[in-house]
Each structure stands twice: as C-alpha cells, then as structure tokens.
Amino acid sequence: MPAKKLKVFSLGGLDEIGKNMTVLEYANDIIIIDCGVAFPQDDMLGVDLVIPDFSYLQKNKNKIKGVILTHGHEDHIGSTPYFLRDFQVPIYGTKLTLGLVGNKLKEHNLSGVAKLICKNAGEDFAVGKHFVIEFIRVTHSIADSVAIAVKTPVGTVIHSGDFKVDYTPIQGDTIDLRRFAQLGIDGVLLFLCESTNVESRGYTMSERTVGVIFEDIFEQSPNHRIMVATFSSNIHRIQQIINSAIKHKRKVLIMGRSMVNAVNTATELGYLDIPPNILIDVSEIKKYTDPELVIITTGSQGEPMAALSRMASREHRQIEIKPGDKIIVSASPIPGNEKTISHLINELMRVGADVIYEGLMDVHVSGHAKQEELKLMHALIKPKFFMPVHGEYRHLTQHKELAVTMGMDKKDVFIMSNGEVLELTAEKAKISTTVPSGQVLVDGLGVGDVGSIVLRDRKHLAQDGLMVVVAGICMDDGRCVLLSGPDIISRGFVYVRESEALMDEAKKVVTDSLYSCNSKNIIEWNYIRNTIKEDLKNFLWQKTKRNPMILPIIMEL
Questions:
Q1: Which of 50, 98, 261, 430 lies 20 to 30 A from 111 at CA?
Q2: Distance between CA 12 and CA 298 in Å, rounded?
C-alpha cells in the first residue's frame, strides 16, 4: 500500500496581495491556515470585497477539522464570516485575533455559529488525527501575531504568518527566534514564508521609531488640531498616538466604525492602556479647542466611505476639515490604492490642512520582514523544501532567489499558483495537480452573484452609458403594428436636450427596424428586440464612435 502524502496548496495569497488561505490535507484531515479578503481592483466596479473560492472545501467539507489564524489583519481573517456561513468548524487563534473575529461575526449576525478556541504562543494542540499545531510568537504590526508549526506524519511544516524581527516591540516579548532555531535543529520539511518586503534590503524599523516621530509632530503643533489616519487593527500605533495625546494633555476622539470596534475590543482584552477620561464622544467635540484634541480615524487607504474621506469631501455630518489641521496619514498604500490615497491627500490640502504622509516623514513602518530578517529565518529553520507565499509573482520569484543564496537547491523551492497542489513525503516534494481556485466577489449582501458578465456590463455602462428604447405595439393578423413611441431614454451617453437631432435620427432607426420586421412578417419578440438593438448600435457607432448599452423594451398594447 503506497504511503500517504501531505498535500499543501493555497486558495489565496499567491501571485497577489490579500485573501490569504493555505490548506494542508493528509488522509481524511484538512486544516486551513488563515481566511482573508482582498481589496477589489479598479475594474471590479461596485465590488466591496474579494474572497477565496471555497468550492474544493465544499466538496471535502467532512474532512475539515479547523481553521488556524495567524493574526487579526483583514487579509488573514476577513473571509471568516463568509466561510462560516457554510462550514461549521472550530476557529483557533490568539486572544486578540479571536476578539476581532468575534466582532466580525456579530456584524454578520453569526455569533455562536463557530467555536472560537483561544490558544497561546508556545502551546501545542491537536487538530484532527494527523496534525499537531504549535503557535510561535512573532512581532508584527498587530499584537498577538504568531507563526504556525504543524507536525504532520511526514514532517514539520512551518508557516511564518506575517512578521518582522522587532527587538523593541511596543507590547509583549520579541519574536521567539530560539524556538525557530530548535525546530530547525529537529528538522523542518517545508517552510512557507511571507514575501511582502523581500525586494527591500536591510531590516524593517521598529514600531517604536514611529512613536518618536509622533512625539516630534505633537511638540511642533501646540496650536493645531491633530488627526491621525491609520489601520484600525494597528493597535500598537493607536497606543503610541494615545501616549502622545496624554503627554500633551489632549483628549482623544475615535472615528470610524471599524476603528471604534477595534479600540473597544483591544481595550477590553488588555491590549490598549487608556486612562479614564481620555476618550471623548463626537458629541463632546465642541467643548474642546483645537489644541486640546486628537482624532484617530479610519481612511488611511482613501476608502470613499471611510471617515477621513467623508471629512475631506465635506460629507461628514459631525467633523469638518479646517485650514491649519495637522493630518497624519500613518500607513503605506496597499498595492492598487496609490491613486485613491493621492486623491485624498490632494483634497485635504485643498481645504487647507497640513498633511504629513509616508513620503514626507517616517510616520509609518512596515510590519513585514525585509531581506536580512528573511535570511535570518532561513538560516535558523534550514528547511528541506521551501514555498514562498504572501506576494505577487515578482515577490515570490525574488524570495526563491534569496533562498538559493542561503544554500537551497533551486529544485527544492516551489513557486506556486493558487490551486496548485504540492505533494510531500518525508523525502520528496513535487507539484502534482490542481484544485479549483479563484476569486469570489462580494457586493453588498451578495456573495458570488457578481461574475465576469456582470462586471463586464458595469464596465460597459461606466464607459459608454445606457440607452433604453421603449415602444408599444400590437399584433394584428400576424403583423406587428407600432402604436406608441419609440421613446428613447439616455443615461451616461448623451444629454438628450443638447442632442435632439441625434435622438430624432435614432428614433427613425428604431421605427425602420420595426417596419422591416413587419414587412417580413416577423413576430418573435426576441428577434424584434435584437434587430432594434443591432440597427441602433451600428447607427450610434457610425455617428459617435461610442457603444452604449442598448435595452429595447417592447410592450404589447
């Protein structure tokens, strides 16, 4: 009987930034590491989130023993509410991570649908018959982050999660390099390591360096209202802002639903230290002068509905940006968001605000390891096989080259795509097959009901507009007789009042199409509609070189 093999594959996070999801399968056991979302791309009009395709997991639902989370960032936990609609499996994570997951489940009315099992770094626990999990403490831009060691029947697999080597973290201990070294001595079959900053040389700066910059800004702004936009999950950053506010005798206002939820959860669980009477409600803001206020807000990525964007566009009901406001954008752009953030900064400056962002000062440091930190991990772990994860193709390729410089053979490094399966025994590894993978689009409450055709139509509408043709006909002895119309409604194509001649010609084209069908004794509704659509499409292209979406509405009177 052939020996069973360990299968390792990703349903997200390879050749892309976001929606991280890695699957380990052995015999009748499946475990899932992380369950994240991605931001929609520019051409995904109207789409809110992108989540992994769960179809392979649906077909193997009975094998799934649990989801193990590395930390609480959206690209690692954001899909959990959508996943748990169909899968009743336990979720394992550290205290803060599960606290943030619990918030998301409440928002989706899913509280209680899954068992949330809290584990600490250094703790071993079995998941299924064939997997023993160990959380290993790492430092990242959110507290309670861990790497994961998975002991399997064919060897140990280590997933780095997101990390950097920060020797002076804001809270908690440093990364547990000793444990990684011990696992390396014992022998590691496969190492999966994040690749986000692999193109950057040197070391990532400590989070504490940002606190020094904040302190300088506060010192230099005694007469200004200060606003800081950052990720709601960056608890360490929020703590440093609050520390500076306390030192300079300022009250703190938290803005944005996700920011309020994150601060409440982190405070309840002991990850934020906020003295009494420091936080105020937005209703109290008029009680304080500008030099007495700090506002911590969402919107560091320029999201249109986030608090800072609404302030910049003067659509926020309670706070308005004023000339002289000192606004710190304490985040780096997620790939694809550069234009949105640039637009936000321009709008804030247009109002008269003094905007400080990453290009001007070191108001943000990455939570991801650069080359020298990655080399350190490779040197400690010394894996037999390596699979770079968490990055676009260029990042994965660069990480392969780094591993080779650390002494690995190229044939033992696997650059994978989502859905490709790596099969491992204790001695060998090879890419064997593929499983269904891809992306599922979330639009409002709809999950998966927006596909390529809907996106194509939205893009078509956005680029060329819409024309609706309405005509009333009756059937008389097998002939269609025009009784009313045709009327033409234009949206996003031309302004009707300024294009009356074009509209009159378009109506004549529709009338001629109807008479043509009548002369041929054609009474099939679909044929009539398609004839009108094609004739009008050709006419408009000849006249305007534009191609609006055309919707013929034919009513029988």
A1: 50
A2: 26
The encoded tokens of residue 484 equal 């009313």
482/207 Cα distance (integer angstroms): 73
Backbone angles phi, psi at 528, to 5 degrees: -60, -45
All residues at 6 or more sequence positions from 162 whose CB lies less than 8 Å from its CB, including other chains: 70, 71, 73, 76, 138, 140, 141, 145, 194, 196, 367, 368, 390
Res. 548: pLDDT tops 70: yes
- What is the distance between the alpha carbons of residues 521 and 119, in angstroms, rounded to a whole number? 75
52 CB burial (10 A radius; 0-12, 13-18, 19+): buried
- Residue among 159, 78, 186, 67 at smallest CA distance from 389: 159
Distance in angstroms (rounded) separating the CA atoms of residues 234 and 218: 20
Question: Which of the four pLDDT bands, split at 50, 70 and 90, describes residue 481?
Answer: low
Taking alpha carbons only, the member of 147, 240, 234, 153 closest to residue 193 is 147
Bridge partner residues of 439 (DSSP)? 52
357: helix, strand or coil: coil
- Got the DSSP string for 420-480? EEEEE-SS-EEEEEE----EEEEETTEEEEE-HHHHHHHHHHHHH-EEEEEEEEEEETTEE
Percent of the chain topping pLDDT 90: 60
The DSSP output letter for 546 is -
What is the Cα–Cα distance from 316 to 326, expressed in whole angstroms? 18
Tokens of 373: 């930190």
Burial degree of 167 (CB within 10 A; 0-12, 13-18, 19+): exposed
Residue 357 has pLDDT above 80, yes or no: yes
The pLDDT mean for the chain works out to 88
Q: If you average pLDDT over residues 197-218, what whole number do you get?
A: 93
Encoding tokens for residue 196? 């986000």
**Given pLDDT bands bounded at 50, 70 and 90, which one contains residue 125?**
very high
- Of 47, 46, 56, 48, the C-alpha closest to 21 is 56
Nearest partner of 257 among 320, 330, 317, 306, judged by Cα = 306
Which of these ranges, 163-177, 274-288, 466-480, has the smallest mean pLDDT?
466-480
Largest CA distance in the chain: 90
pLDDT value at residue 403:
97
Asked if 471 contacts 554 with a C-beta cutoff of 8 angstroms, the reply is yes
Q: Return the pLDDT at 1.
A: 45
Three-state DSSP class for residue 2: coil
Cβ atoms of 436 and 451 within 8 Å: the answer is: no
User: Is pLDDT above 90 for 118?
Assistant: yes
3-state class of 115 per DSSP?
Answer: coil
Torsion sign, CA atoms 424, 430, 432, 434: positive
- What is the CA 177 to chain-centroid distance, rounded? 29
Q: What share of the chain is helix, strand, coil (3-state, %, to 5)?
A: 35, 25, 40
pLDDT level of residue 473 (50, 70, 90 thresholds): confident
Mean pLDDT calculated for residue range 98-124: 92
